[in-house]
Amino acid sequence: MLFFLLAAVLPAAILFWYVYSRDVTPEPGRVVMKAFLFGVLSTVVSTMISGPLMAMGLFTENPGTVLESISTAFLGAAIPEECAKLLMLWLLLRKCSDFDERYDAIVYATAVGLGFATLENILYLASSGFGFLQVAISRAFLAVPGHFAFAVAMGYYYSRWHFSWNAKDKRWAAWKMLLVPVLLHGTYDTICFVSAVSETLSVILTFVLLVFCFRLFKFTRNRIIKEAALNAQDSAFYREHSDFYLDKRHEDNYGRDYTYYYRNDDDSVDEQ
Asked: Out of 82, 102, 114, 171, which could bridge 12 as a Cys pair, Cβ 3.0 to 4.6 Å?
């Protein structure tokens, strides 16, 4: 039982720590736990969206063609799930006094996304019987990191929307905080579904999936580093403790992430 719970929860915990540990002014544990529980609840909201869509015949639970795979990926998973997670993130942050820095949105969105992923993981492993170990390994390296990446993208653009003073940028960010996670999520699921229905394409699509996941990881990491660096740059806490963060002894945890941004001009703070 203990091994089962570790297999279900540990991947999400490790990924969340990766984000949380880079916040120079960490968010309160009670709010983070609330965000995680909101993510768990978002599974119910997602079902309330996808259920009627399935009843209308807009997608099938077991796609057998490429077109069915695309419709199931987007209408059965990406759109309902990302809409549900964004709704829960908005409900959490709309009156949250602790949401006062750019990086905070990534922390809270990640907690929501991984709350969803953890419950989903538990349900998948529980239904897999004695083969749960194989399912646990595949989900630990693909599905859970996928939800993590979608959540980081959502938090990144949510922060842009919330803190931007430019009306045009604010409008674009409002679209992107849902559109980008939906496109990433839908593309990921489409590759998975199509590879399952087509033996001819399965080998090629497995390679495509691995490349996509690698690019997704790079996309995610760049946004975490960028927001953490900009957040720290604006933080009085960082200015008071900059020697600690740039010390060689802490380079593996902080220095490599922050040094690039602080040893270049402000204009160079862009994606790697």
From this structure: 114
